[in-house]
Amino acid sequence: MPIDSIHPAGDRRVSHCTAELNGITYHYLLGIPDRGYKATIFLIHGWPDISMGWRNQVPFLLQMGFRVVCPDIMGFGGTEAPRVPPESLSLYSQKRAADDIKELARQLGATKILLGGHDWGGAIVYRVALWHPRLVTHLFSVCTPYSPPSKHFKPLEYYVTQGILPNFAYQLQLADGQLDGLTSRGQIKQFLNGIFGGRGPKGEVGFDTQHGVLLENLPTLGPTKLVNEATLDYYADQYVRNGLQSLSNWYRVREQNFQDELPLEKDSIDIPVLFIQATRDAALPPGMSNGMEKYVTNLTRKSVEAGHWVLWERPTEVNRHIQEWLNR
């Protein structure tokens, strides 16, 4: 049975909204159940995704009675993309993201929210819970395990070259700005198709975790099976507004995030947390979640046999795990 999904070209169940959050104009999707809502849930996307990445989850959450808010995070989609320089790199920090989510919740009249995240969004929702613990009642993360704040900084190169996180080698390419030159709609659409699993006639791929985006392969790739043409066109239209430079800033703020988190007094999360592991996720492999229970004291684990784009590859299974957890 086909999954009930929000259509990017227009869907009466969601509105496209904007809000000024701490001086930056954000775009977000807002869904409100017809018969009122029992709570508000924020869904936070990752790279290179946008709010529409949650298109397969929004309908069932509305049916459950939740008001659903899906922002485009800083630099993505319809949200402003401040250029660095001249603007400060701190605009792309996880603390700034947490503060902006809190402000959007305030503007929407939500004193308490639930949070869900995927990829970077997963990292962000944990930080919202750390920075604003009174705001968040429950959170779930798809693919992204919890990593506690550290008191000692090491650059990403150290973790990659020492074999601690070889799966993050691709982030070095992204931080280096090698994608900034992809500016036309056609180039951006080829890039997205490659990231989302398009393959060439000899099995060529557009991305791997050891090298990053394989730019030379992009023109040879056939259409991805995970995203239909209308959705891919919508993504390309969103990204062509500001290009890809701002996306790379999320991979340049590692030290900024470290400095921001030094004052945090608590490194554990006590609210109910659901972690959904994609068992074939090469970027965030299962072993990265080992030991989460030490810091996440009310943790529920689930797994889905899928790759990184599990929200689209196995939406029915993901939704079932979320629904069962929310109904507990």
Model description:
By secondary structure, this protein is an alpha/beta fold. It has helices spanning about 60-65, 95-105, 120-130, 155-160, 170-175, 185-195, 230-240, 245-250, 255-260, 310-315, 315-325, and strands at about 15-20, 25-30, 40-45, 65-70, 115-120, 135-140, 205-210, 210-215, 275-280, 300-305.
Largest sheet: 8 strands, mixed
Output mean pLDDT. 96
Low-confidence stretches: none
Estimate the global geometry from the Cα principal axes: globular
Instruction: Please provide the ordered H/E string of secondary-structure elements.
Output: EEEHEHEHEHHHEEHHHEEHH
Distance between the termini: 26 Å
Strand portion, in percent? Answer: 15-25%
| Number of continuous helical runs | 11
Report strand order across the widest sheet: 1-2-4-3-5-6-9-10
Question: What structural class do the secondary elements suggest?
Answer: alpha/beta
Helix proportion: 25-40%
What layout of secondary structure does this protein have?
Elements lengths: L14 E7 L2 E8 L7 E6 L13 H6 L2 E6 L22 H14 L5 E6 L1 H12 L4 E7 L13 H6 L7 H7 L9 H11 L11 E2 L3 E2 L15 H11 L5 H4 L5 H8 L11 E6 L20 E6 L5 H4 L1 H12 L2
Parallel strand pairs: 3-4, 3-5, 5-6, 6-9, 9-10
Antiparallel strand pairs: 1-2, 2-4, 7-8
Helix pairs in contact: 2-3, 6-7
